[in-house]
Recover the amino acids of this structure.
């Protein structure tokens, strides 16, 4: 199979039953892996079930009906890994199933790919079921775990404040649904309705499969041929548009908690669609404003004013959002907000140097080149390109980012609109410096 | 240039090793086909090194908690600007960390490795401290400390260390407290710098796709500082007994969180330490890993969930085994685990489980060699404990079930401590 030396590519191998199979061409890694993703619209009715499915699937299959037996098997396979995950990107949920193992070069010739793929397929084709639903004991245990997991969002204050800010900002929009769904919806699940959604996932969610590492052509063909031998005639379409919304008034939310440090989260609408050409200037814009240690936010909030340990901005590509986050003392809140908004305003005025622009572009270039040294990173990148049908690879993406001009950045800056300010405020019970 | 070349057929990797005349070791691994290049410059000096002799002076000094970490922050500031900014203008991503026994400065990049590497070697040798920039940093580090105070995973772990250790400074917060950092000044920082930032106490590691000569000749040109002699530091004696059996704290969490642990006071060094660490890892996974009877029991009784982890940390001077996660009933979980550990120690591991877990641990190590940062970090870690990167896999090849059983009997019967974070 052809690949240009030094270039990381995803080669389309087959489209079968609405599943597109790709092979990642790169043989420098010591591991081989297979990743599959099922994609669904983020909706209240299925979000919790979509989150629960990988948790149940990871617990075993007809051939290895307990975690203990499954894990023993994986240990024998030189610490092979089988995992499931759910992530939210824009108003979509990605339900991922992953397998990886060390390459045959390191196993004294024992080939692992086929056996690991069979395990993965067993979990998708023969999950543990009874009476028209998932196995009851297994189901109720994992549903409880999901509820615990949803509740434990509060444990990580940085992640919690981010998720609360997004929830408040997008109230009434599907994006307000957290990536694991809500407790309320999780409690409505039963072994039967969850299995039903699992069946829908397997038969009708759009799916992408990626194989990477040193795997021979025959094994790849075997994987494709044996993959989900069921009818997938009615694969649905997911909606990629981010549903841009004009902001009438800035929403301010304050939540008190027994914490030492306040967390400030400011949510902005960028009005840039993920598949639009403006996405590239937006990425550069974010780099200059708060993407790295050379950025305006890091320099002004942390280095100059000493207000925070972290001050950064992140983009949510598929919903067209930008969030600025910083951990500060409560009394410094208005000072921090003022400095942050001043930086956002400076971007609109084009108040940044040629060096700032180039530093952001270089840092993005480094990021994209580095990503090619991680199998998971490569898969993530191509999945995103395949979804938006951008047709970009790493090199062309770098070129696009490099060709962004200061004028392009200023242009996208004009449309960046503050929507919500969320502050997780120390309630004062916790005295500074004590535990 | 004279340098040593060691190849591992098993791992399909080669290490190049260079001795700089100033007494500094440089280790390099070439990764063909990788874009990312990284270099680390580390000193064998961390948060536990609080009592030491400053070269040229007779008395021993005691410094405020958190000073190693404070110094790490300050080295980034140079007379002509901030290093973070300078690296990122060259497209590199710079960072540093301070652990119990190391301070490590590093960057990763894809282009301009030579320029970045020179900058790294240069700034670590040239601190620029003023009363003003030291004061300024207290605000930033103060916020870092407060961030950790709200971090339940962090708190539960340090509370456990406080239970395990009576005297050893591993129990102290790496960044110190708001109170301890208020006592830090320019002079104390220079004392620390002048003691620990000396070639024979440091190491440089790099991973890239370049000729080894290139890496070594840059080191040759850039290393200017002279060795200040052997570092003399002192740790208090640590008794066998626990400081306390239990510690509890309340934080804004959804359900209780626990860490439980045992300390291992054995004074092992070098390869022996590595071997002991490997044996303890095998025994811990055997006892409570995902393939164990105990894990299955606790999970099915809903006493633990997916957040459960276990880990062995064995270093020169201190060691501990730690495990934990979320649990609705930490006390009950802890007592079941304690009983099982005693049983594991007396029954032994058995050949089947030993071979299976050893194989999986080897696989995990091989997997870690996919990452240039991991390789650079592993080389640095192993140098500081007196071994080499390839020993990490050799040790598993040479391990046997008998040795694992012996170490298990020595350690698993030690008293365990429990740290719990409860919801408000």
């Amino acid at each position: 199979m052809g690949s240009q030396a030094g270039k990381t590519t995803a080669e389309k191998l087959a489209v079968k039953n609405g599943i597109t199979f790709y092979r990642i061409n790169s043989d420098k890694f010591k591991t081989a892996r297979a990743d599959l993703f099922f994609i669904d619209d983020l909706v209240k009715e299925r979000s919790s079930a979509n989150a629960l499915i990988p948790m149940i699937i990871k617990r075993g299959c007809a051939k290895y009906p307990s975690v203990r037996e499954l894990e023993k098997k994986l240990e024998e396979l030189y610490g092979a890994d089988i995992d499931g995950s759910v992530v939210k990107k824009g108003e979509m949920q990605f339900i991922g199933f992953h397998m990886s193992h060390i390459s045959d070069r390191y196993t004294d010739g024992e080939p692992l790919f086929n056996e690991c793929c069979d395990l993965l397929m067993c979990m998708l084709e023969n999950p543990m079921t009874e009476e028209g639903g998932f196995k009851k004991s297994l189901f109720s245990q994992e549903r409880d775990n999901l509820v615990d997991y949803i509740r434990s969002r509060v444990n990580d204050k940085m992640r919690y404040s981010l998720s609360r800010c997004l929830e408040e900002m997008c109230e009434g929009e599907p994006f307000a649904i957290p990536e694991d769904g809500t407790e309320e919806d999780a409690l409505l699940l039963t072994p039967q309705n969850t299995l039903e959604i699992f069946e829908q996932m397997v038969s009708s969610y759009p799916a992408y499969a990626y194989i990477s590492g040193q795997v021979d052509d025959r094994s790849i063909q075997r994987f494709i041929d044996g993959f989900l031998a069921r009818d997938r005639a009615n694969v649905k379409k997911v909606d990629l548009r981010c549903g841009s919304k004009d902001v009438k008034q800035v929403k301010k939310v304050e939540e008190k908690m027994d914490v030492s440090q306040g967390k400030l989260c400011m949510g902005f609408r960028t009005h840039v669609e993920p598949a639009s050409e403006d996405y590239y200037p937006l990425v550069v814009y974010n780099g200059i404003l708060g993407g790295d240690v050379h950025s305006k936010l890091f320099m002004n909030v942390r280095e100059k004013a000493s207000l925070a340990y972290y001050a950064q901005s992140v983009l949510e590509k598929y919903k067209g959002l930008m969030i600025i986050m910083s951990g500060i003392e409560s009394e410094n809140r208005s000072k921090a907000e003022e400095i942050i908004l001043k930086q956002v305003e400076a971007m609109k005025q084009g108040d940044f140097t040629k060096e700032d622009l180039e530093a952001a572009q270089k840092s993005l270039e480094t990021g994209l080149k580095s990503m090619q040294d991680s199998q998971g990173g490569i898969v993530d990148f191509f999945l995103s390109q395949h979804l938006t049908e951008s047709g970009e690879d790493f090199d062309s993406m770098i070129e696009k980012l490099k060709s962004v001009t200061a004028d392009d950045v200023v242009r996208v800056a004009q449309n960046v609109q503050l929507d919500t300010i969320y502050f997780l405020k120390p309630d004062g019970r916790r005295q500074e410096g004590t535990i | 240039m004279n340098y040593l070349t060691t190849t591992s057929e098993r791992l399909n990797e080669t290490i190049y090793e260079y001795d700089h005349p100033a007494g500094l070791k440089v280790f390099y691994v070439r990764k063909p086909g990788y874009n990312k290049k990284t270099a680390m410059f580390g000193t064998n000096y961390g948060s536990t090194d609080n009592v030491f002799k400053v070269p040229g002076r007779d008395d021993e000094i005691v410094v405020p908690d958190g000073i190693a970490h404070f110094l790490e922050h300050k080295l980034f500031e140079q007379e002509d600007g901030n290093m973070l900014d300078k690296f990122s203008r060259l497209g590199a991503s710079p960072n540093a960390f301070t652990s119990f026994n190391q301070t490590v400065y590093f960057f990763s990049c894809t282009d301009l490795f030579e320029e970045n590497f020179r900058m790294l070697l240069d700034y670590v040798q040239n601190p620029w401290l003023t009363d003003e920039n030291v004061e300024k940093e207290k605000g930033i580090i103060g916020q870092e400390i407060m961030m950790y105070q709200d971090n339940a995973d962090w708190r539960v772990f340090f509370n456990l260390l406080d239970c395990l250790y009576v005297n050893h400074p591993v129990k102290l917060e790496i960044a110190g407290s708001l109170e301890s950092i208020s006592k830090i000044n320019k002079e104390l920082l220079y004392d620390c710098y002048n003691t620990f930032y000396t070639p024979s106490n440091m190491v440089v590691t790099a991973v890239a796709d370049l000729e080894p000569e290139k890496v070594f000749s840059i080191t040759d040109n850039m290393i200017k500082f002279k060795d200040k002699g052997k570092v003399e530091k002192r740790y208090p004696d640590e008794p066998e007994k626990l400081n306390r059996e239990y510690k509890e704290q309340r934080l804004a969490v959804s359900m209780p969180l626990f860490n439980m642990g045992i300390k291992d006071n054995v004074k092992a060094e070098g390869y022996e330490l590595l071997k002991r660490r490997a044996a303890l890892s095998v025994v811990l996974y055997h006892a409570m890993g995902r393939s164990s009877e105990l894990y299955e029991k606790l999970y099915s009784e809903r006493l633990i969930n997916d957040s459960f982890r276990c880990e062995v940390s064995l270093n020169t001077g201190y060691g501990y085994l730690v495990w934990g996660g979320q649990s609705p009933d930490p006390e009950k979980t802890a007592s079941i685990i304690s009983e099982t550990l005693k049983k594991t120690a007396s029954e032994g591991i058995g050949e089947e489980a030993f071979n299976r877990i050893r194989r999986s641990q080897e696989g995990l190590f091989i997997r870690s060699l996919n990452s240039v940062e991991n390789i650079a970090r592993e080389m640095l870690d192993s140098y500081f404990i007196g071994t080499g990167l390839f020993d990490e896999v050799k040790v598993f090849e040479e391990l046997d079930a008998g040795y694992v059983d012996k170490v298990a009997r020595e350690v698993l019967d030690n008293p365990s401590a429990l740290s719990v974070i409860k919801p408000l």
Observations:
- Residues 322 and 334 of chain A are 20 Å apart (CA to CA).
- The radius of gyration of chain A is 23 Å.
- The mean pLDDT of chain A is 92.
- The domain at 9-225 of chain A is CATH 3.30.830.10 (Cytochrome Bc1 Complex; Chain A, domain 1).
